[in-house]
Design a protein that fits this description.
The structure holds two protein chains of two kinds. Chain A is mostly helical. Chain A is built from seven helices and no strands. Chain B is of the alpha/beta class. Chain B folds into two domains: about 280 residues, 3-Layer(bba) Sandwich (FAD/NAD(P)-binding domain); about 150 residues, Cholesterol Oxidase, domain 2 (2-Layer Sandwich), CATH 3.30.410. In chain B, about 25% of the residues lie in helices and about 20% in strands. The two termini of chain B are about 35 Å apart. Classes of the chains: A mainly alpha, B alpha/beta. At the A-B interface, helix 4, helix 5, helix 6 and helix 7 of A face helix 9 and helix 10 of B.
């Protein structure tokens, strides 16, 4: 399973709705950021992540009769919201991890930082005058 | 092994502890004493501090600043670089509170002595309160709101020289204004003849005082200078060893070394678990320009929390907010109007919260939030919300359900912010004040070292970092680490004099 998989995209567009407006090059940029972070993690963590993404994709089948990537945005959001409040720490933690990767991929891009109005500059006060 | 080397004193780590010990022992070089500092991280050139969030986090921090505790519910931030974590802190320099040092109850450690030594480093590092024109709106609003809400707001003394207000302290100052050990103590030590070797990880210490050291190659395309030594494994013999690799690094190193260490080694880990809270104002404020951390409110003694001003970068801010989706995005898009407060819980030593090592020797941190620690975070969140509203914020984003607190909620914070919203795995708790693991005390039965950092039963081995703290410090720790390291250096000098006599 890769991060450009439908399930990751489905989660990403729920976590950051603006991600649905990204073009192919911007998705590639986001994927590259996330892939680099995952590659630096131990193999066991990589396996856990891959497994959790599979579970994310298939879990909704039990409740909604569809895979996560095939759900409409409202149901997808509802499902992920339940997951982040799940009684089991393992599920909450898993979702938290995927959410963190999405946010890193999205807001780690200089274009996203500029878009939200973040303007920190090494020149400090001088840059604002 | 590719080579053997021999030194009189080997210092492991170059942060607040190691850098201080190196500087204090440096005059001994004139007398022919050979001193080596081994630093796991690289040495960065001034122009490599770009302030770009992911790039600098990856270069400076262990696991990019997201070292996870064993159960995955908290991230720990610590640097790996020439200068250690002094490269990435905000320069806040407070002296240890008397009540805390008394409560530690370490025989032979007096508050007055620690204060005197801390003052020496405060002066050396140009610690002072920033002038008013350099204070940004994010900090000003904290002062205004805090006073209106009835809190005692104090100004942080900071160790900067020529601060331009980049706000990028936690990514390494791009203007070399922060007076960490990389700017002050280490260069002095090197000028005096202390040898510093970077990219050099100590894998273990043998009972015969031989250190197994692995020097890494600089990977293509990465920041930092190559090591001063050729890549490979080394056997470094030492007469005296000072371990100053940070609470996690030192504890893990001693745990994986075949030494007769006291049984409490690795225990007593505390870390001031922290939450970032944001509030939205109606108009833009200066927040991502200016020194980020100029003021604080200390309720450590009464309510187990400390509030500090702060300003983080887009990704860290995004991951710190609870929830996701449209509400989360709306707050992120209000970035120029955001005020931020960091809530630190004053946690205490708890059974099971400890540093261990895996079968391969990698550090593992076991940490569970006690009800008291959660209570500190809850009380701190309510206090921060009061300050935000008193400062004029129109809404506050906090661990609550729903996460947005409106002005109408200001009078019912006890009801809106409760412990049930602080379930581990539901919110982004992180910590950067990593303490304990080699606590000071009386004997091997109750501690790892004595009050001078000497490991019980191993007179040639000393510890000089925050792992010495027998419990949480309840304030930012760097000046206290330097004060304790100053004592360790004095102890090493005394040992050396005895040997010579």
């Amino acid at each position: 399973m890769t991060l450009s998989s439908p399930v990751f995209r489905a989660v990403a567009t729920c976590v950051v709705p603006e991600a649905s407006r990204l073009d192919a090059a911007q998705w590639d940029e986001m994927d590259a950021i996330v892939a680099e972070v995952i590659a630096a993690r131990p193999r066991a963590v990589q396996r856990q992540l891959a497994l959790f993404l599979i579970l994310l994709e298939w879990f909704p089948l039990l409740r909604y009769g569809r895979r996560l990537s095939r759900l409409d945005p409202a149901r997808r959001t509802k499902f992920l919201d339940r997951l982040q409040r799940a009684p089991m720490l393992l599920l909450r933690r898993g979702f938290w991890g995927v959410r963190t990767l999405v946010l890193m991929g999205y807001y780690g891009r200089p274009a996203a930082a500029a878009e939200i109005g973040y303007r920190a500059d090494a020149r400090g006060w001088e840059a604002r005058r | 092994m590719s080579a053997s080397r021999s030194y009189d004193i080997v210092i492991i780590g170059s942060g607040a502890g190691g850098g201080t010990v190196a500087q204090e022992l440096a005059p001994l070089v004139r007398d022919g004493v050979r001193i080596l500092v081994l630093e796991k991280g690289p040495r960065f050139a001034d122009q490599e501090f770009t302030g770009r969030e992911l790039e600098m986090a990856d270069a400076l921090y262990q696991d990019g600043g997201a070292f996870l505790t064993r159960d995955g519910t908290m991230t720990l931030a610590f640097a790996s670089a020439y200068g250690g974590s002094t490269v990435v802190y905000t320069g806040t320099s407070l002296t240890a509170p008397q009540r805390v040092i008394r409560a530690w109850g370490v025989p032979g450690l007096e508050h007055a002595d620690l204060t005197r030594r801390s003052a020496k480093y405060a002066e050396q590092n140009n610690v002072h309160a920033l002038d008013d024109p350099l204070i940004n709106d994010n900090n000003r609003l904290f002062v205004e709101g805090g006073r209106k809400a009835g809190y005692l707001v104090e100004q942080f003394p900071v160790n900067v020289k020529g601060c331009r207000g980049s706000s990028l302290c936690n990514l390494g100052c791009p203007n070399q204004a922060k007076q960490g050990t990389n700017r002050v103590q280490l260069p002095r030590a090197e000028r005096a003849g202390v040898e510093v070797v970077t990219r050099a990880e100590v894998l273990r210490i043998e009972p015969d005082r031989t250190l197994t050291v692995r020097v890494s190659q600089k990977a293509a395309g990465t920041k930092g200078a190559p090591s001063e030594w050729a890549p490979g494994d080394y056997a470094v013999r030492a007469r005296a060893v000072v371990a100053a690799a940070g609470a996690i690094g030192t504890s893990a190193l001693l745990l994986r070394s075949p030494l007769p260490a006291p049984r409490s080694l690795g225990h007593g880990f505390t870390c001031h678990p922290a939450l970032i809270l944001v509030a939205e104002h109606a108009r833009p404020i200066t927040n991502d320009v200016g020194h980020p951390k100029s003021y604080f409110v200390d309720h450590g003694a009464s309510e187990r929390f400390v509030l500090e001003t702060c300003m983080y970068f887009p990704f860290v801010t995004a991951k710190s907010l609870t929830g996701f989706g449209a509400t989360h995005s709306a707050i992120m898009h209000a970035f120029p109007r955001l005020q931020m407060i960091l809530i630190l819980a004053c946690d205490h030593v708890a059974s099971g919260n400890r540093i261990a090592v895996s079968r391969t020797g990698s550090p593992i941190v076991h940490y569970r939030f006690t009800p008291e620690t959660i209570d500190g975070l809850v009380r701190g969140t309510r206090a921060a919300a009061r300050i935000f509203f008193a400062a004029g914020a129109r809404r506050v984003h906090a661990p609550a359900d729903p996460p947005l607190l409106e002005t109408a909620d200001a009078d019912r914070l006890e009801e809106r912010v409760t412990a049930r919203h602080f379930r581990p795995g539901m919110l982004a708790v992180s910590a950067a004040h990593l303490m304990g693991g080699c606590g000071m005390g009386r004997t091997a039965a109750d501690s790892v070292t004595d009050a001078w950092g000497r490991v019980h039963g191993l007179p040639w081995l000393r510890v000089a970092d925050a792992s010495l703290f027998p419990d949480s410090l309840e304030i930012n720790p760097y000046l206290t680490i330097m004060g304790l390291a100053d004592r360790v250096a004095e102890g090493v000098r005394r040992d050396l004099a005895v040997v010579r006599d």
